[in-house]
Design brief:
Blueprint lengths: L12 H66 L2 H12 L1
Amino acid sequence: MDMKRFPRLPVSFRGRFLLVVFGAAVMPLALIGVWLTRSAVRAGEDLLRSELNQSLDRISTHVVEQWTYRRGDLELLAKNDTVTRVLAGVLSL
């Protein structure tokens, strides 16, 4: 790199102060902001996944319970002689 093309600029006290402030305050805050943003997205996804799993558990428990009742009703009807005779008569028409 040719130093004649990019001469070194004198750095004033104000320039040095701004560099120190930028290096000591702004950069760490920016890095923490990026880290928090990524971790917030991950935490949000984990929370959503856990809520969905809980909802699935509640719904599946309810469905299994209701299916048990319906299955019992169907078995009761299937073993009832009157119902089987009526259905056999309807089917034979």
